[in-house]
Amino acid sequence: MTGNSVIPISFIVPRKAGAEVFQEDIYPNAYAGRPSLQADEWLKGENKAPITVSMNPAVRGDDKDQSGGGGFVKKKTYAELEQENHELKERIAQLQSELAQLGPSGGSETKTKDDNEEKDE
């Protein structure tokens, strides 16, 4: 590092075990993406260490509570979306036919005493 620039340095860490073993000394815990203090606590002058999460995929998993992020959600394939769309369209058609069977008033044919009196006047 110089006074006005950062010079990247690449290096190789020789290890007997390859990619199958997580190397904690190279990948330390990282910021979890959640605040360790609420705003009112910070305004009172409190300090806490940041919340961290392990970079080890075997330990970390996809636990939303641990990472604080949204977690990974697998997106549906195009075929899955088409199937869901087809099912939803069938459900809409079913509900529309049920609504049509109820009649033009939509099933609200029960009248109150006040409604009947207004029509008589």
TL;DR of this structure?
The protein is mainly alpha-helical. It is built from five helices and two strands, in the order βαβαααα.
Give the CA-based shape: elongated
Helix content: 25-40%
Number of strands: 2
**Rg measurement, Å:** 31 Å
Give a quick account of the main beta sheet: strands, pairing sense, barrel closure. Answer: 2 strands, antiparallel
Low-confidence stretches: none
Q: Quote the distance from N terminus to C terminus.
A: 93 Å
* Pattern of helices and strands: EHEHHHH
Beta-strand proportion: under 5%
Q: Which class of secondary structure composition applies to the elements?
A: mainly alpha
List the strand order in the largest sheet: 1-2
Number of helices: 5
Mean pLDDT: 79
Structure description:
By secondary structure, the chain is mostly helical. The chain has a domain at 22-58. Helix content is 38%, strand content 3%. The chain contains 5 helices and 2 strands, in the order E-H-E-H-H-H-H. Strands 1-2 form a two-stranded antiparallel sheet. The longest helix has 25 residues, at 78-102. The model has no long low-confidence stretch (mean pLDDT 79).
Characteristics of this structure?
single chain, about 120 residues, mainly alpha, about 5% strand
Topology diagram in text:
Elements: E1 30-31, H1 39-43, E2 52-53, H2 57-60, H3 64-67, H4 78-102, H5 113-120
Antiparallel strand pairs: 1-2
